[in-house]
Specification:
Its main location: membrane. This protein has a 22-stranded antiparallel β-barrel. Strands 10-15-16-13-14 form a 5-stranded mixed beta sheet. The protein has a 4-stranded antiparallel beta sheet with strand order 3-2-5-6, with no helix packed on it. Among the domains are: 19-95, Immunoglobulin-like (Sandwich); 105-224, TonB-dependent receptor, plug domain (Ferric Hydroxamate Uptake Protein, Chain A, domain 1); 225-242 and 295-371, no CATH class; 249-290 and 379-407 and 778-1014, no CATH class. The longest helix is centred in the first third of the chain and has 18 residues, at 2-19. The protein contains 9 helices and 49 strands. It is 7% helix and 47% strand. The two termini are 53 Å apart. It is mainly beta.
């Protein structure tokens, strides 16, 4: 009996020993490079216990049963199993790339393709890059990280739009790429950047699967999803910081201004305005007055994700609050988002998925560009004037001829600006995949966007002293807009392996896309108490003399069919063919339908037997593509006549508002056609540590939709709301070379680094403008001058067209020997700009205007660096633009305005200078648009710099935290440029006239402190 007790005791002790728990931890790395892999799922087999690796690839699990098996899994890598037999907090786990899994992550539209078999020009930005960049708007993450992509700002104000151009400007119309979010058409600028997992850019004929919508390139967004068989994870990210202007312009101080103005008046034969300049000092720095410092920005983001073997989920929410560096809350932006993503394997054959995003934002804005903007007024207001008068009221800027009627006190302008814009949007999709049989899957998806916006602006009754901004009667304008669209996709995919060497994937389907919406606008006069608090149309009782309300509605549709076949032989000879048929209601009955075919091919040279086992070149692929895409991004109903014009008629001696015909119709309108050619080479070298991608491309856009074709005025084209017809009459070609090289390596257990560089060389040329006059004009310069930009055959689209200056007249003999410049407004005198008689006819007039600059850069490039040392990480991202010109148009052509201090080097006598003309109150031609106002706007910008520190997981996990990272960063750290203005990279976004600087609101420099926590 005693022996039985001893046996029982022995078994008890043995079972306790087997059940004891061990603490296990370590780091997970890549094979070859040895770089740590963040986000690897570490799961105890047949249990719900698990964790994920942190930014440095570290993980830690406590109390793991002896003999348990850990499963390490990560997309693109082979699963690895490790059996726990003892305590070990210094495991070194190495995951090998799984070519099969790795190659599935490239999204190409209506499916995915193996990375090694992609035959188009495709670039990907991953979530690791997004985390390092911390963009406020997701578009900013493409600048400098993807070759062939250029992102320009229309304004540095919070919430301002950004323009994306893929491989240049191809059309005089809409150049924006198509954005697809998880399979449906969406809006890139509204996304919370922390919700995005990958950004894939289709730059060539690979985008032809989207037909008419993909002519400007396609951006595919994949949002973050939960992972199967992973426990619930909570990720919280936050940052707070402050902003300041990244640049101020060197203006004349009060004393310099007064002395220069005296000289100007004396040169003009007028009495000097400042007989005594002593005591003026530096005066008012108006830029310091309008620019605020330590302007706050704060962001919070939280997400919950996880999954079982059948269901995955991801739920997130974010809050961004950003004030402006001009006007603070008068120029603020607030954005809230919420997202729910679910997927479920209902059965072995049926999978369901949904992704729904809600976005709300509120934006307040100031006059940010053009004559009369806040910065325009700040730059032109003399430093001798004070912001406030003796009574504490805003100083009125004099309305004499020397200061004109456009310049007002910028502080008063900010204080008297009242507007509010609220936007709400719900978008998403619901989809299913059904495997009809082994090789054939049917996919269906419904995507939708529905948005509502309300805006209100208040014009306060105010007198600025005889300025154009005087408001004799208060008013409030309000609008309500509802925009909707939905798409229905149904397609089948057949994937078949034929024998040992042949692989075939075919996709056939159709898409229905519809846009519809309406808008309502109204204005009410005589706001009670002349106050923003009472600015509502329901409270106004003023009677208007003109029509004060309006509305619109629209309904546009597109029906498409598409087919794609992808074939490879032995995985090394690759072919694909696509065709899409689109029918659009934007064109007349005979031109609704367009057919858009494309072809791609590739050759995996490194898989050939003759290539051998080369230790230097690990992978080599040659690829090429050619295809045709369409574009229907034009105003609605251009092919029919509408009563959309305004007219005033006289009946019985009284004026009566009525309707008139709108734009003259053109029933022959048809699709713009984009013909895309690309040949590329992909290389991986030195144990896959170095990756090289090179592409040569030609993108020709034909049948451009050219508006405002000259016709007889008898048709009433000059009436408000009327206009000349639009026809297909232009061709533009973009050609260039893209090159990208990346290097990543782990030099030791403590130090790893990755470096990337990309460059794009681009040439843009207009091949045809068949509108009767051979060119299209755009943009504006000064007041009352001819348009400064053109689209013309043989030149880049939007080039600058004006007089060429070749220096300064040094003496009267030079003036007498030169053709008279009196046609420019005044005859020249010594010290004035000398313009070139381009055609050599001895007469200087408008026929001598010529190409004096190009806003399109010759080359753009990015250089990016990431380093990890122990628990520290460091990243820097830069972008450069070379060869882009910009027009300096923020200086008002009036005698008494303030000026940049470069005028201190003005001409004062023979030989003094040959670059800057004299100052005078006399009439001259110096303000005529010429090369004098065109500057080289090439620049190099340090876009982002960030330093982070991750708390060792063996300490943080004691509090249940799998990752705890602190970081500090600076966005828009510094811009190296010779350009005199605020932002050499800004643009209005217009294809013709976009590079004209009216005083662009600069992008703020932002200092951030942030925290990342994962539970």
């Amino acid at each position: 009996m005693k022996s039985n007790y001893l046996l029982i005791l022995f078994l008890f002790i043995s079972s306790f020993g087997f059940a004891q728990g061990y603490d296990v931890g370590g780091v997970v790395k890549e094979t070859g490079s040895g770089l740590p892999i963040p986000g690897v799922n570490v799961q105890v087999k047949n249990s719900t216990i698990g964790t994920a690796t942190d930014m440095n690839g570290r993980f830690s699990l406590k109390n793991v049963t002896s003999g348990a098996t850990l499963i390490f899994s990560y997309l693109g890598y082979k699963n690895l199993e490790y059996k726990v037999i003892s305590n070990n907090s210094a495991l070194s786990i190495t995951l090998q790339e799984d070519s099969k899994l790795l190659d599935e992550v490239v999204v190409i539209g209506y499916g995915s393709q193996k990375k090694r078999e992609v035959t188009g020009a495709v670039s990907v930005v991953d979530s690791k890059t997004l985390e390092a960049l911390k963009p406020v708007k997701i578009e900013q993450a493409l600048q400098g990280t993807v070759s062939g992509v250029n992102v320009t700002t229309t304004s540095g104000a919070p919430g301002a739009a950004l323009d994306i151009r893929i491989r240049g400007i191809a059309t005089n119309g809409d150049n924006r790429p198509l954005t697809i979010i998880d399979g449906y058409i969406g809006e890139l600028g509204l996304l919370n950047p922390n919700d995005v997992d990958t950004i894939t850019v289709l730059k060539d004929a690979q985008a032809a699967i989207y037909g008419s919508a993909g002519a400007n390139g396609v951006i595919l967004i994949t949002t973050k999803m939960g992972k199967k068989n992973s426990k619930a994870r909570i990720n919280y990210n936050t940052y707070t910081g402050f902003q300041e202007t990244s640049r101020t312009l060197p203006m004349l101080n009060a004393t310099e201004y007064a002395l220069l103005l005296n000289e100007s008046y004396a040169n003009g034969g007028n009495p000097i305005p400042f007989p005594n300049v002593s005591g003026l000092g530096k005066g008012t720095n108006w830029q310091n007055e309008v620019f605020s410092t330590s302007v706050p920005i704060i962001n919070h983001d939280i997400s919950f994700s996880g999954g079982s073997d059948k269901i995955t989920y991801s739920i997130s929410g974010s809050h961004l609050d950003q004030e402006g560096i001009i006007g603070k809350d008068k120029s603020g932006f607030l954005r809230n988002t919420a997202r729910v993503s679910l997927s479920a394997d209902v059965s072995d054959k049926l999978k369901l998925k949904t992704n729904v995003i809600y976005t709300y934002f509120n934006r307040k804005s100031l006059n940010e560009s053009g004559l009369g903007s806040v910065l325009f007024n700040a730059l032109n207001t003399p430093a001798t004037l004070n912001p406030y008068d003796v009574n504490g009221d805003f100083t009125l800027i004099p309305s004499n001829t020397g200061l004109g009627i456009e310049i007002i006190n910028p502080l008063a302008q900010i204080a008297n600006t009242y507007n509010d814009y609220n936007f709400k949007k719900v978008n998403g999709n619901f989809g299913l995949d059904y495997k009809l049989f082994n090789d054939f899957t049917i996919s269906s998806s419904i995507g939708f966007n529905t948005s509502n916006s309300e805006s209100k602006s208040f014009s306060k009754e105010i007198n600025y002293g005889g300025k154009v901004f005087d408001v004799p009667r208060s008013s409030v304008s309000q609008s309500a807009i509802n925009d909707n669209d939905y798409s229905f996709d149904l397609f089948g995919t057949y994937a078949k392996k034929i024998g040992e060497d042949h692989n075939l994937v075919t996709t056939v389907g159709n898409t229905i896309f519809k846009q519809f919406g309406n808008g309502l606008f109204a204005t009410g006069f005589d706001v009670p108490y002349n106050s923003w608090e009472f600015a509502d149309i329901s409270l106004t009782r003023g009677i208007a003399e003109v029509l004060t309300n309006g509305s619109y509605n629209y309904d546009e549709r597109r029906l498409s069919y598409f087919a794609r076949a992808q074939y490879d032989y032995k995985g090394k000879y690759l072919f694909s063919a696509m065709i899409r048929r689109d029918a659009s209601t934007k064109f007349g009955p005979g031109n609704k339908v367009g057919y858009f075919p494309s072809f791609t091919a590739g050759w995996l040279i490194s898989d050939e037997g003759f290539f051998g086992d080369d230790k230097i070149i690990n992978f080599m692929k040659l690829r090429g593509s050619y295809g045709t895409l369409g574009n229907d991004q034009i105003p609605n109903n251009g092919y029919v006549s509408q009563l959309s014009g305004e007219a005033t008629y006289v009946f019985d001696g009284a004026l009566v508002n009525g309707l008139a015909t709108g734009q003259i119709p053109n029933p022959n309108l048809k699709w713009e056609e984009a013909r895309k050619f690309d040949v590329g080479l992909d290389l991986k070298l030195i144990q896959n540590k170095v990756s090289i991608v090179a592409d040569y491309f030609i993108d020709t856009r034909a049948d451009l939709l050219i508006p405002f074709i000259p016709v007889s005025g008898i048709n009433g084209t000059a009436a408000p709301g009327a206009g000349s017809p639009t026809i297909n009459a232009g061709t533009v070609r973009n050609s260039g070379l893209e090159f990208a090289i990346d290097y990543k390596n782990k030099f030791s257990d403590n130090f790893s680094m990755s470096v990337g560089y990309n460059v794009t060389f681009l040439k843009n040329e207009v091949l045809a403008v068949n509108n009767g006059i051979g060119y299209i004009e755009g943009g504006s310069f000064g007041v009352g001058q001819q348009a400064p930009s053109r689209m013309e055959v043989g030149k880049p689209i939007g080039y600058f067209y004006g007089y060429k200056s070749d220096g300064i007249f040094q003496n009267q003999a030079e003036v007498d020997a030169h053709p008279s410049q009196i046609s420019l407004g005044a005859d020249a005198s010594p010290g004035d700009l000398r313009f070139v008689d381009v055609n050599g006819d001895g007469i200087l007039n408008s026929s001598d205007r010529t190409n004096i600059g190009d806003p399109i850069p010759d080359a753009t490039m990015g250089f990016n660096l990431q380093m990890n040392y122990k628990d520290f990480d460091f990243a820097v991202y830069t972008f450069a633009s070379v060869g882009n010109d910009m027009v300096r148009n923020y200086e008002r052509n009036l005698t008494d305005v303030n000026r940049l201090n470069y005028v201190l080097d003005r001409w004062t006598g023979e030989g003094s200078t040959n670059t800057t003309p004299r100052v005078t109150t006399s009439a001259t031609g110096n303000s005529t648009f010429s090369s004098y106002f065109v500057e080289d706007a090439s620049y190099l910008r340090i876009q982002n710099m960030q330093l982070g520190y991750s708390i060792n997981s063996k300490f943080s996990e004691k509090a249940g935290i799998t990752k705890l990272r602190l970081y500090a960063g600076v966005n828009n750290l510094y811009t190296f440029t010779k350009y005199k203005g605020f932002d050499p990279g800004a643009s209005s976004g217009a294809p013709i006239g976009g590079g004209i600087d009216f005083g662009f609101y600069p992008i703020p420099r932002t200092y951030l402190l942030g925290l990342n926590i994962n539970f």
